[in-house]
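Throughout our pipeline, every protein is held as a single compact record rather than as scattered files. Nothing more is needed to write down the fold, since each code stands for a local backbone conformation. The record that follows is passed on verbatim for readers who wish to inspect the format.
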Amino acid sequence: MTREPAAGRPASTAPNGQPPRVRVTAPRTAAVPADSYTVSRELDEQTEVGELFIGSLIRSQLRLALVVAGGFMLILLGVPVLLAFLPVIADLTLFTVPMPWFLLGAGVYPLVIVCGALYVRSAARNEERFLDLVDDV
């Protein structure tokens, strides 16, 4: 098998009659990475690992919902407890509205809004952390 010289180079042989040495280098194309399993692929194929990640997200969202609902209920049930321990408050009126009604009406709605805003912000943070985990790098 003979070798043809590269364009513009003369064919030469070494003094001992053997062909010249040729330098072999790596190919110029990048090597194809091994087929790795990413988290998003695990989720798409619904493998055990993907189910573990989804279960973790669901548990964290459920834990958040229970904490926010528990805090809300604790504060909401605090109004009747306050009225039971301080019956003087039950006899007060504010703009002809009995104080217990005022506490429940004017105190609960801002509480609902604050709890809802905290829940939405924390749930979005949980989902963002999950997406950071799932992002293919």
